[in-house]
Amino acid sequence: MVTAISAQRLAVTFPGRGRKRGLEALAELDLEIPAGRVVGVLGPNGSGKTTLLRVLAGLQPPTSGTATVLGLPPTARPLRRRAAYQPEGPLPIGVLSAPEFLAWVGASIGLDNRDSDERAARWLERLDLRHAGKRWVRTFSTGMQKRLALAAVLIGDPEVLLLDEPTSGLDPFGSAEVIQILRERAAAGTTVLMASHHLSEVEEICDEVVVLHGGRLCARGSLDELLGTDACSLVVKGLDAAAMHALADLAKSRGGEVLGVERRRSHLFALFRRLAGSAGEPHRG
Amino acid sequence: MTRVPRSPFALALRRCLSAAFVPALASGLAGIAASRWFAPPVAADAVAPAANTPWLQLPLFVTAVVCAFVAAAFWPVFAARRPGDAWIVRLQPGPLAGRGAVVGAALVAQFMLTAPVLLVLTPILGGPAAAAAQVAFEPGSDALLTEGAAVRFTVATPVPAVELHVRPLAGPPSGSLHATTLRVFADGDDVPLADPATLAVDQSGQLLRIAVASRPIGAIRIEAAAGNVPLFFPRGSVVAVGPPVHWTCTNAILAAVVWCVPTFVALAFACLCGVSAALPTVLGVTGVLLFVQSFGGVGPAGDALRELMRGRWLLTAGLFPSTLPFLAAGSTAMILAMSTSRFPRR
After folding, report:
1. ipTM (interface predicted TM)
2. CB-based contact (8 Å) between A107 and chain B?
3. Which parts of B187-307 are beta strand (E)?
4. Is the pLDDT of residue B188 over 60?
5. Domain shared by B251 and B122, yes or no
6. Which residue of A has its CA nearest to B83?
7. C-alpha span between A71 and A4 (Å, rounded)
8. Domain residues of chain A, as ranges?
């Protein structure tokens, strides 16, 4: 299988000032990500997730080790289009409208003007940003900025997506839309490496996860490998407490292990969708 | 949608023009109003358009500051730790990450706004309709200390002149004041005067405008005919004024070009200090550099407007050679900004 992203003994150390010691953001990291995989990068704050993405995006030179994206060094010019990076935080040039921002991104990655405009119109429609019109990007809500950032990284139809917290700041509808888009991109063969604190989303779309801590690789594998798949669970509805205990006894008698009997609430997202659906879809942003 | 600006240059140009248009217009009007209200008291027949130079400087300075500030704030990589700079560094190739294009856009925007301002304001503020080449005679300095003394000035090749400007500095007289009356000889010929009294000097910096028959002049001899005011002739105090053959509009455009130099220098140093400084510091440095070059007598900007108002053809005024050290300093700052960039080369 073709390797899309590769890192060998990758290390990044930020120099300390004065008597302060330098900060080791990444240490001896080895990573191979095959093309077409969706990989989540997990870890607590300061674990090196953003640094890893910045190195792969060509924004942070490694202190030692090497990294390649699509077989090229991260700073190679062809990667401006072939690999897209969505950093966390606000968009630059806040005094542009959404179409102008996408036109600048399209021109920067070498798209033909007409092609760029068609793609921009398609993504603005898809991400529900048409209504923003000529409003300046800096007046957008965080959610709108996130959606526009996603449109900007997708406009060039890249082979590799490097995403830093792509769903933070989005409402549940926005998150669901982003996840759906990432699924579609993955199905089309795009390699996705996304750092996120939203574990449920990572679980939902990632083929495998990389767990970092203190700049070091703690664990790596598919979700099945890491979470285990040998246990089956039964979720029932409509039984009273006595019937539930009877069911538990039956499970024990058949050699099963009952970990607990609990009342489960409905998923919060389901409630949100139900309420929003009954009141009409809320304005995004 | 295909007409949307896409390059950093086009985006920054549009932003600078839209942000600076109203300030340029308003400060131009303010300059006109101020020149009326604060007009210096001069004799009824005196012609002193250069006295209005500060009111011409006002709109140019305001436009330059707005264009420079807008450019620096518009493009995130002008300062360290700006939100969104990762987008710019990744998408904009080159060691300056688009800052060169943005500086160029700010300069073009400033020129597009200041050239019309100068074209309109120069005649309103009393500038001459035409500009003439002016050549200063050498040596740079000399003195007339006693009655009957004479000083001699020459140029390497005779220059066509229709007027001589003599602007000596005066010292304290030895007794009660008697204005020193001068006699002026051009290439040995006594210059005939309609009114000999016009060559009496009793004030320091007093300008004597002496009309001469249009002809090339190679040497000037000035003689103290009477009076007891000692006169000193610093460099540039004896000038031959050629026939006014250059349209003042062209001169105003040249002055607008010269005024781009301070902005270039300020933005170049902004690039350099933005390698590690945050936006407020970058804007502070930009503002100080613009102020010093506009009003502090550092650089050619102030001189350009004064010479424009005096009707001096700027191409022969030595202004453009004097911009070279500033252009060199700005270019050096840009090169240093490139080489000390915190961004990886792409």
Report:
1. 0.81
2. yes
3. 189-190, 200-201, 208-226, 231-233, 238-241, 246-247
4. yes
5. yes
6. A90
7. 7
8. 3-227, 241-278
Confidence class for position A285, pLDDT limits 50, 70, 90: very low
The pLDDT, as a whole number, for residue B264 is 96
Q: What percent of chain B has pLDDT over 70?
A: 92
The whole-angstrom distance between A105's CA and the closest CA on chain B is: 7
Examine the pLDDT at B1 and tell me if it is beyond 60. Answer: no
Kindly report the length of chain B.
346
Burial class (CB in 10 A: 0-12, 13-18, 19+), A8: middle
Instruction: Check CB contact of A100 with chain B, cutoff 8 Å.
Output: yes
Mean pLDDT of A124-130: 90
Q: What are phi and psi of B122, to 5 degrees?
A: -60, -50
SS3 A29: strand
- The reply to whether A60 touches chain B by the CB within 8 Å rule is yes
Cβ distance of A59 and B4 shorter than 8 Å: no
Average pLDDT over residues B291-317: 86
What amino acid is encoded at A255 in this protein? Answer: G
Give the residue from chain B lying closest to A95, CA to CA: B74
Rounded to an integer, the average pLDDT of B39-58 is: 72
Q: Is the pTM of this model over 0.90?
A: no
Q: Are residues B16 and B116 in the same domain?
A: yes
Q: Rounded CA gap, A136 and A132, in Å?
A: 9
Per-residue pLDDT band for B255 (boundaries 50, 70, 90) equals: very high
Measured distance CA(B66)–CA(B24) in Å, rounded? 9
The domain defined by A3-227 carries CATH number 3.40.50.300: yes
